[in-house]
Structure formats: structure tokens, C-alpha cells
């Protein structure tokens, strides 16, 4: 039945050239917005939302879906080329993407990211089409204990993003968790660590932190060392190599499945999906892996996961009326403005629109592939621009990206402050990614821990009495044990020698 409906939806979309045009426009806009540090897919969808009011609902919604898909992919371009992730979801891609770019393989890295994004997004769209109601029921089973267990498991990803500096990575993650406590207490409502600064009452925004740590820091580092950007090799292929595709095919499939599952959990998001896939890749590759040095799998895993998560995030939004992340919250608002009410009844009263939307999501992946491969050479050549021109431009874009979220000068100061923090961390070899991971997971972790304890009247056994939270907690404990064993194994070998 689903197959017939999806063919009917595909026919509806393909029969109207204007819909295809809006999908392509959305993808192109999303790629450019996502590639600019700080201007996320959420920003792009929010900016374009008013333009959908005078159009057919399907046209407007699919344009926003195109922005969503293109924005998540676009963040990988600046991550690979400039070591400045355009979106939080691209931080994991940066770990192997930029080292590959430094080796003069920028085109190869972007080609891999494009192919992985297409594969992950297509798998996610197909899973969404077939299993939307079933996966939505699984997401419905997540309460505060399950969310806390999920964030606890997510924090064990520190081992995947700390490299050889696990202790320093834990320290950085702890600092990130502390940063999320600044502002109003989410339960009691009292202010914490604001030091009398009014702008801190609402907490510290993620985007200025991201831009400061990975954008401003790089400007400082490059200006100090007078480094030049890695050069793309003349005549380099800007398409993924067949050998790379064959070597990473199972990584792409596995990561896409991880991404669509994580994305279907309300509140998880594409960034957590990317880190989850990267963590699983590091586990499966073993202690002697080459991740972080330009390993193609290190690009494929997070890109397949975060693009699959875009489709996964649509599952609870369409099936339950619960947005999976910030972007789907904008899409939910768009559907509501156009007179629709996403939820279980939505599947029965608007079946034609639902499957046309599913077909549009699949077509958006093909649009992403075409746009990505067409513009790969253009983006790869950006790194050949003289750094005396590029540095001020990057700093300007970082400031604009920080300012644009809340139109606040204070956020620009926050970005500069975290640029200084990142510069110091780089000097003392403290990894930056665990700090960002702590910031991403901190608020969600604290809120759900405290809600769980309120539910159980302070009894911590609540996390062991619910199957999903028990499974995630055990997975986190196992990950910690394996982490400790891996860190002790090299020292034991040195003592033996």
C-alpha cells in the first residue's frame, strides 16, 4: 500500500515543474546558508518561511524541506575547507574532512561528503516513508528517564572526539556542561552564574559558541602562524572515487540507519546523530584506527547520519505533531499556518499531501546530489583565495552569523570570547569538540535528570526500571568500561616492554 501511495505522490510532484523548481531553489539556498558559519538550516527555514505564504502549501513546504536538507549538507563544506563547521551537525565531519583537505584532497573530501549525504538522506527518506508511524510510536515511548539515558550515552562519545587526550577531553566536556548551567534554572527558575550580566539570564547561545570555537579560533591560529589554506590540486577530480564508495558503502548504510533512528527521537537532532555515527565508527574500527587524520570513513559516517536524521526528524513531526528538532519546529509552524494539523489524524485526512511530501523529500536528495556535485569545484577553489583576503571575510561572516540568531551584539562578544578560549585550548592541546558536545547535551541532560527525579521522588532506580533507559544506561556503562580499558592498554604494553 505504501509503495502505491509513494508512486502516486511521486507522480504528483513530477507532474508540476514548479514544485521541482522550488525543491531545487530550497536546496541551493540551504547549501549556501549552511556553508556560512553560524547561519544554520533553522535560520534559512525561518527566513524563507514568509515567502511560502502566498504559494501552494506543497510548494512552500517542499522548498523548506530543500533548505533543511541543503543546510545540513552545506555545513560540511566550510568544515572541510576552512575547519569552520557551518552547522553543529558538521563538527564530526570536520575531524577527518579538514585533514584530508590539508593533504590537497579537498575535492575528494567534498565528493565523499556529497555522496554520503545523498545515500544517507535517501535511506532516511525511504525509512520515513515506510516506517513513519511505527518509529513515531517508539519516539512516543521516550520520557525524561529515556532522554537522560540517551544524553548519558551521548556523553560517552567523548572518547570518539578526544583523540589521544581523553583526560583533557573529559575536562573540556565538563566545562561545556558547566556553560549550560548559566542563566535561569530550568526547574526552579532562579538565576545561576550570571555575575550580574543581564544578557546571560537566557543562557549562552549555541551558535556563538560554535562560531567562536571553530571559526574565530581558526582565524587567530592562522593569523598567528601565517599559514596558507590548503591548495586544491590542479585537475583534481571533484567526484567521489569508485574505490572510496566501495570502501565506505557499509559505513554509509549503517550510519544512515543510526541517523534516522536518532533523528526520529524528538529533541535529539542531526548533530547528535552525527556524533553517534562517528562514535560507532570509532568503536568498530578498533583502537588502531586512523580516524582524525583524513580517513574517508570519518567523512562518510557523520554525513550519512546527519542527512538521514533530517528525514528521521520529520517522523515525529508528521506522525505525532511533535517536532524532532528546531528545523522541524519551523516546518510544523509552516504546516499550521497553511491550515494543517500534523499528528495521527493527518495521515488519514491528508494522505495525498503526506505522500507527495514523502516523494518531495526523496527528490530533494537527488537535487542535493546534483547541486553538490555541480558546485564542488567552485567550493574547493575557495581555499585558493589569498588568506589576507579570506581571514577578514571569515571573521566578518562569523560575526554576522553570531549576530543573526538574536540580533544581539552580546552574541558577537560571546563568539570572540570563545574564540579566545579555543585559541588557549589549542595551545595547551585541549580538544575543542568535547566542549561543544557538553554544551549540546548539557541542557537536555540536566532538564531530564531533574524531571526524572521529580517523577520518582528522588529514586535513581527509575533509570533501571524502564527498558529503554536501562538499555541506554547499560550501553553507556559498557562504553565507559571499554574507554578505560583502551586507555590503560597502551601503558600496560609499555610496562611490559
Number of helices: 20
Give the percentage of residues in beta strands. under 5%
What is the global morphology?
globular
Major sheet: 2 strands, antiparallel
Write the element-wise H/E pattern from the N-terminal end onward. Answer: HHHHHHHHHEEHHHHHHHHHHH
> What is the number of domains?
1
What's the arrangement of strands in the largest beta sheet? 1-2
Could you explain how this protein is built, in words?
This protein has 497 residues and is mainly α. The chain has one domain. It is 74% helix and 1% strand. It contains 20 helices and 2 strands. It has helices spanning 2-14, 17-35, 41-48, 57-82, 91-102, 106-140, 144-155, 158-161, 166-179, 206-225, 242-264, 269-285, 296-320, 326-337, 346-349, 351-381, 387-406, 409-427, 433-455, 467-496, and strands at 183-184, 191-192. Strand 1 and strand 2 (191-192) form a beta hairpin. The radius of gyration is 22 Å and the shape is globular. The chain starts with a helix and ends with a helix. Mean pLDDT is 79; it is low at 491-497.
Short description:
By secondary structure, this protein is mainly alpha-helical.
What does the secondary structure layout of this molecule look like, with pairings?
Elements: H1 2-14, H2 17-35, H3 41-48, H4 57-82, H5 91-102, H6 106-140, H7 144-155, H8 158-161, H9 166-179, E1 183-184, E2 191-192, H10 206-225, H11 242-264, H12 269-285, H13 296-320, H14 326-337, H15 346-349, H16 351-381, H17 387-406, H18 409-427, H19 433-455, H20 467-496
Antiparallel strand pairs: 1-2
Helix pairs in contact: 1-16, 2-3, 2-4, 2-16, 3-4, 3-14, 4-5, 4-6, 4-13, 4-14, 4-16, 5-6, 5-13, 6-11, 6-13, 6-16, 7-19, 7-20, 9-19, 10-17, 10-18, 11-12, 11-13, 12-13, 13-14, 17-18
